[in-house]
Amino acid sequence: HAGICAGFGPAPEDPESLEFHEWDAKRRDSVTQEVFQVCGCGEPKFFNDKPESCEMNKFDSMMRHLCSSVRGFTHVVAVDADFELCTRAWCIAEIVESGECGIPKRIMIHSEEMLDRHYESLSTIDVRDCRASRVEDKLMILQKIRDVDTFNTQLQWAIFGTQGVFSRLIDAQDRAALIARIVVRARSCTSKPSRSRASSVSSNASS
User: Fold this and answer.
1) CA neighbours within 13 Å on the CB side: how many for 165?
2) What's the rounded Cα separation, in Å, for the pair 78 and 65?
3) Which residues lie closer than 8 Å to 135 by C-beta, 6 or more apart?
4) pLDDT averaged per 10 residues, the chain (length 207)
5) Which end of the chain is flanked by fewer CB atoms within 10 Å, N or C?
6) What would the DSSP string read from start to end of 158-169?
7) Rounded-to-integer distance, Cα 153 and Cα 155, Å
8) CA angle, 100 as apex, 51 and 78 as ends, to 5°?
9) Crossing angle of helices 172-191/148-160, nearest 10°?
10) How far apart, in whole angstroms, are the C-alpha atoms of residue 34 and residue 32?
């Protein structure tokens, strides 16, 4: 109630844009297509403009707290049929955070057929290309990343590594090819100057 219960956020200006259709879909029941009712509690709302009071920007701290205080805590990754989850900045950040904390992960996907269909796009994910409902949210996530290229390498490992979320769903040959790609990406990160947070954020803000 201190965040998102009173509405769906501002609508994108262009009603024909992909961003508008995504915004509109999220505010509707996926079966009936009726718009969800919003809460009229009147509780004060806090967003990124007041980071100390905002609840949504502390997912990484909360995950670390749960990992250390809740026995058997597990990260369940429920993936939609089109793997849109893997293009969302918040979801990507959570996957990497759980990997860094050593939180066990359980993956739920629509089908292996859909995984095969989206395999190539998943293997080249770049956090700079991920989306968030609010531009401010994406900028905040990017600002927390010290080295974007290194983060992308960690992301690939969190998804396809030997303990990654999809590791049990791809065969040994494909996994070996992906790990080789991850190694190449890691070597490229260490052989060239890292891209700073400031340059990453500014380039994304202007795109």
Assistant:
1) 31
2) 21
3) 205
4) 84 88 90 94 85 84 92 90 86 84 85 80 83 80 83 77 62 56 55 47 44
5) C
6) HHHSTTSTTGGG
7) 5
8) 80
9) 170
10) 5
DSSP readout, the chain?
--SSTT---PPPS-TTSHHHHHHHHHTB-TTT-PBPPPP--------TTSTTT-SGGGHHHHHHHHHHHSTT--EEEE--TT-GGGGBHHHHHHHHHHHHHT--EEEE-S-HHHHHHTHHHHTT--GGG-B-SSHHHHHHHHHT-S-HHHHHHHHHHHHHSTTSTTGGGS-HHHHHHHHHHHHHHHHHHHHSPPPPHHHHHHHHHH-
The pTM is what?
A: 0.63
Place of tokens 């009936």: 32
For the record, the structure tokens of 167 come out as 């590791």
